[in-house]
What we know:
It is built from 16 helices and 10 strands. Helices cover 44% and strands 12% of the residues. The chain is an alpha+beta fold. Strand 8 and strand 9 form a beta hairpin.
Amino acid sequence: MRYKVNVGDLQTGMYVTELDRPWVGTPFLFQGFLIESGEELEQLKAICAFVVIDEAQSKVAVGSVGKPADDSAVSAQEGAHQPEKSPARNAERPAQARASVQQNVGQLLASAKDGKEIDIKESQKIIARLIQQSVNHNLMMQMSNLRNRQDRDAGHSLNTAILAIAFGKHLGHSEDKLRLLGLGAILHDIGKTRTPREILNKPGKLTDEEFAVIKRHPDEGYEMLKASDNVPDEVLNMVRYHHERVDGSGYPNGLKGDEIPLSVGIISIADAYETLTTDNAYQPALTPVEAMQRLRTTGTDGFGKDLMQDFMRFMGLYPVGSVVKLNSDDIAIVFSADQKTRMRPLVMLVRDSKGTEIRPHRLVNLAVLPESKLSISSIVDPRKYAIDTATLFEKELGQ
Ligand SMILES: [Fe+2]
């Protein structure tokens, strides 16, 4: 039996299955949770007016404080947030949504490789979905932390699109412009379908000849898409110029400054960040913080100071996916951070102070706790604690 319970009447031992607001953006797990501490009670009081408790999964009696909950009772609450049932039961989970989108991207790249005509209609559908999801910045950043080990190329295109759309949105771009950014990001490396695999996957340093072959992919992509006749000019530019850099150090044409449109810069920086944070043939993945340091030190001249600063503001001090140590010595992953609360993000506790794995992982919203109680003391290297952030995000987001 499920009961609607006002937050003032909640007790530890009750099992929460629904909130009166969307789960995403709250400190709580999508799939429901047992209230185990006064801290969690306080968090619920801070963000909800009422919740739905499942008595069968609770450790205490609920009937005396709640009203039987059916869907109409929940939605009739006056002045409450729109109720949203757990996506675990009622909607496609973020990781599943991403997996089906990625399959489409994989098919697109495969047909380009086979020399078939490139159908951008499918890509446009994919991008429309991503733009819908982009209203939730944290969901986008969480999805960009997912990886696909089977199809690295499709994963790279999709992650670049997620980052480019989220960054474009942060910069205040219109929906039309976000659509172009999404399409440019999905297609930016399509020319690599013409690059021999043994060069693309070669571990270690490339010879000058091999690098010259790689450098052909922006022009090859441009030629492939120009032939398909329905790709907007802005998108053709993103494909052709995504390795150009404002200091003239890029390729293929060594363009400089204003010769490179802003939309191209957005794709370039999203592409570079995604490449740095993913394992590939020539270097293992950097952590989000390491990637930001690398971009800042070696990329500022190439991307331009303004764009680099915007990107740093967009990613924040603790990018989603960073691993941090708290003042309790617990180790946590940054799970979401809003513009206003980015110094005190939502974190997922994964190791206790002795290094033992915390199971199940607990989400804690630092923003609603007093700073004296719990705060971030440093950023740490996930490798030191054998933490695989991509796998953890997959589990949490339901892949
Ligand atoms: Fe590229």
